[in-house]
Amino acid sequence: MKEKVREAALTGFVALDRRLPAAEAAKALLRKAFPDHWSFLLGELALYSFAVLVLTGSYLTLFFDPGMTQGVYAGPYEPLRGLRMSQAYLSTLDLSFEVRGGLLIRQVHHWAALVFVAAIAVHMLRVFFTGAFRRPREVNWIVGLTLFVLALLEGFAGYSLPDDLLSGTGMRTANTIVMSIPVVGTYLSSFVWRGPFPGHVILPRLYVVHVLFVPGVLIALITAHLILVVYLKHTHWAERGRTNRNAVGMPMFPQFVTKSTGLFLMIFGLLTALGGLAQVNPVWAYGPYRADQVATDAQPDWYVGFLEGALRVMPPWETVLWGHTFMWNVLIPAVILPGLLFTGLYLYPFLEKWIAGDRSEHHLADRPRNQAARTALGVAGIVFYAVLLAAGGNDVIAYSFRVSVNTLTWIFRVAVVLGPVLAFWVTRRICLALQAHDRRLLAEGHESGNVEQDVQGGLDEGHKALSAGQSYRLMVREVPRPLTAPRGELPRRQRLRLALSSWYYGDRVEVPVTPEQRRAIEERTAAPVEPEEPDAAAGAEPAGRGS
């Protein structure tokens, strides 16, 4: 019987392979080279956190009711008995105290959401600092950034669904942000909330967004992202045997599959342990939401905390024009600032390509120190975000350290302006110092620790030459040179481009190389050509598309 089943399966596979290139596609996929550096696992961390989110969220949807009709709580949690509350909050309490395993699944879901957004953010930082957004991966950068924006929306929607006093305070803030949009803000608020705040339909609408619309788009974008990763191949660090024309790593089967499965199980186990041992979002401690109450010590989840901080440090500016109130104290920090921030991130790959005048493909990852201006910009952005995140808890900080809230607010106002500028300058100087250190290593080698005396009696610490692999890593780099100005009068746009190019790439430390080494470096950093047949060695294949 087993022989007949095996024979039938083999016959079916052969018949399928005659009609579709199944065997060739499967063979190519199994030989796909995956990166073996730890920093490339951040994307997998986000992917597997999302898988945990889908699994736990599917369980929670069986018991959660997003209704806003009022009822009286008569459950086992004594402090809330007899209080009127919405069906959303009531079902959240039932999930926490009466559904078997409900509280564990709720907390695993919340922890997975935090890890999911954090993993995407750190993964995007890795892509930014290593230049993995450059051609031909600009579209994948846009897809990844859109995934991050949707993850923020998904997290806010899920955070708001329990309808406790903390999430209701956040919803009130969201309503104020929508209302601050000039001219159309009131109409948009009435459309979303279907009347004045708090309305009666916002939670059911958010529920549909949270469990249907955004997850569907996320799954589609994740699929597109993975397809592009497979098609374009991954970047890799400059090491011997790794150039701008190949993609070297571990084969998908069995090495990558085994490691990736282990990583998924570790993530699932860690999130389950956090859900069982580390309390998060205890909604029963906040009580049900009421529009005439505001929770003290109200702090949103970290990924939207920067908006809270921006609202708190913004001066109370308002202007009335033609009968419309322009709430600059809300519009600038909560609408204009995020809009400019994400627009800049979307356009950055194309802006850097325009400044550098670079149209070639790149598959070698940059060491952040070698791109001093880009690294400094990234660190300045992180400091800007960190200051706003800290400002979002200015009341808690003031209470804990017994300082004035007004004084602390002014400190954050100064820090949010000067902090990124100082961080940019310090980071750029550090990167240039590290480049000078690399140059000294190439010229002199490592310190041996042995002190030698010459015939004149002078003392000098001995050095030993770098290994071939270390020299390769330091010398093989792609750092564009500033654009040179052509003769004659230039249009303003061209002058701006030249000025930006000089500012961006002017400060650099050249590595000491011979003419032969320079030619070898240019050969290894040359743009890919049309891909030929895959290399016979397992785990190596041509890089990306042909240029």
Automatic annotation (TrEMBL):
E.C. number(s) listed in UniProt: 7.1.1.8
UniProt membrane topology term: Multi-pass membrane protein
Pfam families to which the protein is assigned, alphabetical: Cytochrom_B_N_2
Localization in the cell: Cell membrane
Record field: compositional bias (Basic and acidic residues): 516-525
Broad class of the protein's primary localization: membrane
Cross-referenced Gene3D superfamilies: Cytochrome Bc1 Complex, Chain C
Keywords in alphabetical order: Cell membrane, Electron transport, Heme, Iron, Membrane, Metal-binding, Respiratory chain, Translocase, Transmembrane, Transmembrane helix, Transport
Transmembrane annotation, as ranges: 45-64, 110-129, 141-161, 207-232, 262-280, 326-351, 372-390, 410-431
GO cellular component: plasma membrane
Catalyses which reaction(s): a quinol + 2 Fe(III)-[cytochrome c](out) = a quinone + 2 Fe(II)-[cytochrome c](out) + 2 H(+)(out)
An example molecular function term from Gene Ontology annotations: metal ion binding
Protein's UniProt name: Cytochrome bc1 complex cytochrome b subunit
Organism: Streptosporangium nondiastaticum
